[in-house]
Amino acid sequence: MEFPLLIPFPQEIGITGCKHHLIAYLPHPHGNLHSPCNFICIKKVFNISYLLPIVTKSNIVDEMDKVKVSKFHYKMLLLSAAGVFLDGYDLFIISVVLLFIKPIWINTLPLPDRSIVMGFIAASALIGMFVGAFTLGHYTDRIGRKTMYVIDLIFFVVFAGLSALAQDVYQLIIFRFLLGIGIGADYPISSTYISEFAPAEKRGKMISSTFTFWGIGALTAAIVGYFIALWNPLGTDSWRLMLLSGVVPAVIVIALRTTMPESPRWLLSQAKTESALKVLKMLNPDLNVDNLDMKVKKERSSIRDLVSPVYLRRTLFAWIPWFFMDIAVYGIGMYTPTILQALGFRDPIQSIVGTAVLDVFGIVGFILAIILIDRVG
Questions:
Q1: CATH class for domain 59-295+339-376?
Q2: pTM metric for this prediction
């Protein structure tokens, strides 16, 4: 190993090299001082990196995973949870509405058509969810998280309002289907938005706590339906207020969501590095941008990856329980007041109260998931 000689070099010595090598040059005795070609090497010094500051660059994605939870994260969590709340609310308010439109609309249909029409009224939003999740959710990768974060709630406002104005069961089915498209889009958009901002150690708890609001939304739908049924301001048309009641909170959430930034991960995927850095600096004002490695590995993926050998077991582990859960939650939950009425709760008010009590147990399950998800895996 060679070490640098600590000797005073004259001013005309040239120094060049990198952090691992240093080369000192003296002017050639017969050369031109101003021509670099006429310099001769007098000393090459190796292993001088210990003389220089060591700078370790961290990846920008890693920095996003390590960011501390701040007020912004709680605001993001609240606004995402508000969307999930509206999902649960708008889906399950129809279970209460069915009690009131059954005698005035459904029972006037030919007997063979009644069950079919009632099933479509309940399921139309679910069918729309399937369409929305596969179409609008995909567009978040194209036009951005924030844009779709707002657009999906516009579906809530427009089609919840139109559902309340429906003049027959067929209009109601169509408007509920279109409402479901917005609900289906909000599921992947809200969870993606949270996961891309949340620090790694809090991500599981944040996402699971968001979906707790789905259960709270279902419970609130039963409570609101209960009070509107008691108040009964529009007589046989009071069910319209139940469907309309989700519009006002949706408008408020839309206004607040427009104040949120775009996901820095999506910005990086679109090569919008400066915009991503601004968002990251907002999350961590003490971040040293100069020490960031801005290279982000781009990976193309498709839905086929979910059934590839690498992910198949995990995909089935998620799909199968979720499939059976949806059968129980939607297959029964959409008709809970009607089922309770058939079981002996003749008064619609009583069946709504019974529905609310059952919804409480769902919230308990969500709370247990929040507590245990980061502890037991």
A1: mainly alpha
A2: 0.78
